[in-house]
Amino acid sequence: MRYTIVGTDSPQKQIAMRSRGSWIRAFLPATLAAALWACAGPASSLVLVQQGKPSCTIIVPAEKNSIIQSAAEDLRDHLRKISGAEVPVVSNGREIKGVRIYVGVAPSGLKLPVDLTDRQLFWPDGYLIMTNGERLCLLSPRPEGVSNAVYGLLEDFLGCHWFTPGEIGMVTPRRSVVEVKIPGGYRVVRPSFEMRSPWYNGNAGARQTPEEATQMNLWRLRNRAGGMQGYAGQDWVSIFPKDLQEREPGLQAMINGKRAPHGSEAQICMSYPRAVEIAAGYFIGLFANHPTLDYYTFSANDNDSWCQCPDCVALGANPAERMMVFTNKVAAAVALKCPGKGITTLPYSSTIEPPVRDLKGESNLYPVLCSYSMEQVKPKTQENDWCNTYRRRVERWMELLPRAWSYDYIGWYPGPWTLFHKLEAEQEYYRKHRFTGMMPEYLDRNLGTDVHAWLSFRIAWDKNLRVGDLLSLFYPAYFGAAANDMRALYEKFEKQMLATGGTGEVMDVPRLYPIPLIEEALTRIASAKRKVATDATICARLERDENCLKLTRLWLDFWTSSASFRRSGTPEHKQRAAQSGLSYLQLLDSLDGTLTVGKAARGYVASSLEALNDPGTLFSKAGSFQYMDGLDDGGKSFQAKSRSGFSIGTYGLGLAPGATGEVVYDLRAGEGLKFKEARLVSMYFTLPLNGHNLVDLSVDEGRTWITVCRDTPMAGGTAEYELTKPIAGTRQFLLRFSIQNSEKEILGMDNWGIAGVVE
Ligand SMILES: [Zn+2]
């Protein structure tokens, strides 16, 4: 099937639904830019390690804090990696030797150059790093800020980098003398973005071992990800649960004229007078119990089933306007009782189209603006219908909102994602329009997605960093003598992807990653490996990328052979498809525990393999049955009794100008069974302008035909048609779809399905 530009079946929506519940809980807001101040004093230099021997002590607060403790221990581990020196971590003053590194605790009597309680200065998780005599102090109003100070010291002053997750992703310089020089004696560092939360979703992280998950979290932490503390998932159901709706029926959404209590599958009645009070009460309790939270989610449930009662409809001209009216009231009530705390809202799906009225969002609103249902590969700043629509929406929203966090979708395909340079153009666009955070969702891990996330971490922290400069740091530091080969390889994929574009559909894959390009890249990696043969770590990095490309190659084999089978239906093609699918799964599964690649594409291949053995339109088990076909590359249309006139296309069955297409299915109930009921579902069956279409059926093996519907457009993949009357009690019937086309080439059938009961 094909995805429409706006629709409930967009791939983004499906992905969001699949990954529901896996929104991360993000740490630590921002209209504030990364700021550095240095006072005009002398550059103080401190020697932490002398000839491989420690000449410093790390001091942590006596009252243990797990965030600060972990960061201090990681500082110790990095100093060991750099120099071999074993630096003690203590909280007791008597054990201190040499330079004192104060982590999250200020030495008594120390005069600070700035007020550490100044919220604006550090918002939300910035820090002060200063030298004073034989002391190095890493301080912040928040433990998360102290942790950021540790990694700021390691990265900005000592040259450590965490390009990709795990041990092999780290780059640590080696030297026997470790010296820190802070020009001016101190720096106050505030992140550019208040929310820095690139994250791999549950599909990308499927089958990860606990050890791998720990490594992924550590990688984010070291790269100073985080920001405001809170949660942004789609979760009205927690505030207005079903049992509350049962006790308070006014909360129940009216859908198709009926009110009923709902869970996450619908919204609530937003015009119910007590709804604002209930939500505000929920947030007041939540912020009282969790005082470290900065914000919490007021993002509606993940569906478009809004209350249709007259009072809700009167709230606004479209779903976004109604949602904003309601959300603003809740936000105002929260601001009154919980100063400094905020709530989210989610322009997405049916609420992506902005309000018509000039409804200004309350100042404590944290909107997450989704790159919903659009071009996902070419830059959003480009001129094309999808991107123009997206930017029109964003710019209208930003006339109303106090700020927003971007929500982009990354890593759509079972192939490389090296779209590094457009990141800068898009982030500049967001910043120009007053965005203060980013929370891109990575749909899968593959070659380049970690580097993309690393670039995102870096430019979210400091807007002054340039992608080009960061990549010039990355390639040689990470790939050593293979840097030029790998840069050329990454850039070739970037160029090919930008030239092709894509909206995240599976049929984009062969065009984005042509087989000759993959094979050329594999050859290049093989020769690059010879250049770095003596360095096991760089070899391991190259092998990670090599395995990703091998998987893409196998995936393309599977795609090609299963498409051949869908078109021909022959046993030879079926066997080839099964073999290539199994080869893909075998290689993928052999990489479990190696942090090489994500597992989102696994589900697609596994379910496509199962579909190879689909029993077709014979329903042999009593009970409900369903047969669905998206018809991509012909889909399962080879299972039809006959097919003529249609051409097989990427999205479904096409029809040339003037042609007549016909496809007939033979539907049978199994031994001793009869059809009880049936209906056509998920229909996308075109009525051509000046042409005709017809669905009819026969219960006497084609001698006579009964019309189901004639000259009826069935679009959107949602239309349903009742078949029960003519087929009830039969054991077998024929179903015929025919279209008589007029002057333009069309996509005749994009999707169809039948569901019912046999008994
Ligand atoms: Zn209502």
Structure description:
The chain has 759 residues and is α/β, with parallel strands linked by helices. Among the domains are: 35-190, 2-Layer Sandwich (Chitobiase, domain 2); 237-280 and 303-340, no CATH class; 495-611; 618-758, Galactose-binding domain-like (Jelly Rolls). It is 35% helix and 22% strand. The chain has 21 helices and 38 strands. Strands 2-13-8-9-7-5-6 form a 7-stranded mixed beta sheet. Strand 30 (647-648) and strand 31 form a beta hairpin. Helix 14 (467-479) crosses helix 15. It starts with 10 loop residues before the first helix and ends with a strand. Residues 1-41 have low confidence and may be disordered.
Number of discrete helical segments: 21
**What is Rg?**
30 Å
CATH architectural arrangement of the domain at 35-190: 2-Layer Sandwich
- Share of helix among residues? 25-40%
CATH class of the domain at 35-190: Alpha Beta
Bin the strand percentage: 15-25%
Number of strands: 38
What spatial form do the alpha-carbon principal axes imply?
A: globular
Secondary structural class: alpha/beta
List all distinct small molecules, including ions and cofactors, that are bound in this structure. Answer: zinc ion
Runs in which pLDDT lies below 50 for 5 or more consecutive residues are 1-41
Largest sheet: 7 strands, mixed
Give keywords.
759 residues, single chain, alpha/beta, binds zinc ion, seven-stranded mixed β-sheet, Chitobiase, domain 2, disordered N terminus
What is this entry, summarized?
The protein is α/β, with parallel strands linked by helices and 759 residues long. Helix content is 35%, strand content 22%.
